[in-house]
Sequence to fold (142 residues):
Amino acid sequence: RHCSILMAPTAAELAELGPDGRAITDLDAVAPKPFVDAFFNRFCAQADNKTCFDCTAKNPSWASVTFGTLMCLECSGMHRRLGVHISFCRSVGMDKWTYRQLYRMAVSGHKRARAHWRASGIDAQSQEIESKYLTPAAVKYR
Fold:
């Protein structure tokens, strides 16, 4: 039941996602590490999420909570330089995550983010990070 958050649950379903079987009443509470690890094991195993969203590096271990995408260490540094008001980054394995942040990841992912950029006429992997995340398409996706 822990990983059902990947299905983009409704508000009613979200209440059943607590790691101990109880309802999540505070979405801004820190999720327990085993819950976070189970979430990212499933999320990172999805075919579209196995490489960095911004380059071709495999097995990304950082995430942009803002965009719901995964990235490599190098690209995470570029995201951090943009500022948290543009892209809020977290380590998949080292940082604490709230239920709200996990939900943002669950409802996005690389497939959905790439489709948004493509529909806006932007190739998500070929455009420079510094310019891609400052476009009107990025502002709309946030």
Residues 1-11 have pLDDT under 50 and may be disordered. The helical segments are 11-14, 33-45, 73-82, 99-106, 109-119, 129-132, 136-141. The beta strands are 62-64, 69-71, 89-91.
